[in-house]
C-alpha cells in the first residue's frame, strides 16, 4: 500500500493479519499487489458517499496544497 499526503509518500507492506493502517483525511492511498488470498477490510466513520472522494491525483494535489 502507498500513502501520500502531497508532500511525503510512503509504502507499507501489509502482509500479516495483525497489521493495520489508519489513514487520516486528505491522504491519497493506493492498494496494489494483492495476493490471491488477500482480504482488504475498510472501516469508516461515515456511510460511503462517492461524492466525498477525490479520484484524480492532480486534483488531490491542488486541494492538499491550497492554503487552508
What would the principal axes of the Cα set say about the shape? globular
Total domain count: 1
Radius of gyration over alpha carbons? Answer: 14 Å
- Main β sheet profile: 3 strands, antiparallel
Number of strands: 3
The run of helices and strands is EEEH
Sequence-ordered SSE layout with sheet pairings:
Layout: E1 2-4, E2 9-11, E3 28-30, H1 57-65
Antiparallel strand pairs: 1-2, 1-3
What does this structure look like?
The chain is built from one helix and three strands; from the N terminus they run βββα. The chain has 68 residues and is α+β, with helices and mostly antiparallel strands. It has one domain (1-68). β1 (2-4) and β2 form a beta hairpin. The N and C termini lie far apart (27 Å). The mean pLDDT is 92.
Compact summary:
With 68 residues, the chain is of the alpha+beta class. The protein has one helix at residues 57-65; strands at residues 2-4, 9-11, 28-30.
Q: Which features characterize this protein?
A:
single chain; 68 residues; alpha+beta; 3-stranded antiparallel beta sheet; 3 strands; 13% helix; globular
